[in-house]
Design a protein that fits this description.
Layout lengths: L4 H7 L4 E6 L14 H7 L3 H4 L2 E2 L15 H22 L3 E6 H8 L1 H6 L8 E2 L9 E3 L5 E4 L4 H11 L20 H15 L4 H10 L4 E3 L3 H4 L3 H5 L3 E5 L5 E5 L23 H7 L4 H10 L6
Helix pairs in contact: 2-5
Amino acid sequence: MGLDYETLMKKYPRLVIANLSAYGEKGPEVNRPGYDTMSLWTRCGFTHDVSLINEGHYAPTLPLMGTGDIPVAMGLMAAINAALLAREKTGKGDRVALSLMGTGLWMGSQMIESTQFGHVYPKNRFTQSPVGAAYECSDGTWFNCNVVNFPKDYPNFLRLMNHAELLDDPLYNNRPNMNKPEIAEHLYKLFAAEFIKQPASYWKEQFELNDLCYEVVGTFRGALDDPTAWENDFLYKMKHENGTESVLVRPSMTSVNLGLPEYNRAPKLGEHTKEVLAEYGYSEADIDKMLADGAAVQR
């Protein structure tokens, strides 16, 4: 058909072509179809390895719909924009490509690469970092700490945990030792015994007073009521034709020049049938006949 890159570029040398695939452009799976839940989540290890083994029990996690499509779409958009920018400078078009699987491997690269050096997945409560884990609080809420700047933050963290004495213990006062399962398990149990004594609101206040990184473990439902999300226009309340309202999540990119874009519903299938047919020159009588004959549908 002459629609391959080489043929098209001879005729249209400034053309930018973008290709999106499930498994890349080489190998036996080149024409195999896929979705982000399969080619990205399940194939690349997320479904199996982001689960947490609890008391010896394990089940693969549920792939989250759309969470692969979004970064893939953004990556493809970045590749297209890069090609367009290069064309402005060189006058030449380009062909860019991205795949679900390749993006999934890139997203999981830190974990994937670490398996070469002794890291085993999936983890359990005692093989994860005890200073980067989630702990249950007295109100049933889970609280995730994250001590990254170890020399600066670990002393304050230990004082909050009522275990400042560990600062003088060479087994527990250095970050590399926490990679040892027996030490990680011991520390996790110590810290868990402290977190369970107070509600998440208490730990939130204490972590903020000590300038420690944390997050209260959120839920999908709770995100709809998050004041920060509303303040930043990450969420939008849409009014529907039947009088009901629902909350939708906006794309979070912003632009000073463009302002906050309108966020409207997509048209219904067949909603603009009459308008479209009229644009193509059909008369009102022609359109009415198409609708009466079932050749067209107006909703």
